[in-house]
Specification:
Layout: H1 10-13, H2 58-68, E1 75-78, H3 80-92, E2 99-102, H4 109-117, E3 120-123, H5 134-140, E4 145-151, H6 163-172, E5 178-182, E6 204-209, E7 222-225, H7 228-235, H8 245-254, H9 257-280, E8 287-290, E9 297-302, H10 305-314, E10 320-321, E11 331-335, H11 339-348
Parallel strand pairs: 2-3, 2-4, 4-5, 5-6
Antiparallel strand pairs: 1-7, 6-7, 8-9, 9-11, 10-11
Helix pairs in contact: 3-4, 5-6
Length: about 350
Amino acid sequence: MSGVLELARPDIRALKPYSSARMEARGGSVLLNANESPWPAVASGSGMLNRYPDPQPAELLAGFAAVYGVTPPQVLCGRGSDEAIDLLVRAFCRAGQDAVVTCPPTFGMYAVSAGIQGAAVVEVPLSDDFSLDADAVIAAAAQNVRIVFLCSPNNPTGNLVPLATIERIAAALQGRSLVVVDEAYIEFAAAPSAATLLDRHDNLAVLRTLSKAHALAAARVGVLLAHVDVIALLRRILPAYPLPAPCIEAALTALTPPALAATRGRAANMVAAREQLQVLLPRAAEIIGALPSSANFIVVRCRDPQGLYLRLLAAGIVVRNVTHYRGLHDCLRISVGSRSDHARLFAALGLREEAA
């Protein structure tokens, strides 16, 4: 057993997991064990929807392992990254006793999942330039801190956490905390994945998703990459059938060579469009400047963020109001869109379309 499991809740380590009917069906062809309908009611390319899907399809695990450079036992698939965040907090944090570290402004689900579990949230704010203070993170990881959440590229600020910083934190917190790196936007960054560090640090875990670069937000397929013992532990509390069959089919298609090539092309186009937005948007009278971004969005500082938000909304353009985040009181977040999306945005901001 890996030392990282000593950080997990003892009752979860001792829990006897639920054994689903599908787990018992290996090699069987007459399926009379799951109380399913023997007759399909809905035609689908994903096969017989009257049968429960495999909880963790071997083909899907192998596909993700190949793409992310790990082994299949290091992969857990679930309903978006949110489910993996929730599972990690529930497995490692005892209600009323343990805590997680977050680095605001950052993705809100880390704190929400902690709150649901009854775990405390220790905040280590990003610096004024939104860089991560590794020393402060390490110092904040007191004895009861079980998980440190790092988002790279960070949502909503778009900046990267250098790989050397991630490794330094993981090494310093060995035996003390699990370091979880959320890489939902890494495909848009010219940077290596923290998954390259997994073999050196059993207290490191990485979140990936098909929602962004792979254009499968509605399929809700997320991936956790971690030490095999962490994956095995989370499978104890994973819902019996986390992924619907059509979502499994969509994910398998997304991992084929042609689809992966299309994803790389799509990501490259979005990066080019992001760079264009960063140059053009500050030319609008209402916008003061744009933060550097390694994601598929940018954050702009505004003279009147609420007024601009409402004016864009009246024009049928929905952006993200992030003024409630620490350090972003004058900011809006704008996702990279299509060429026609940008044309409407530029028109609403009084920017000449030909300037784009």
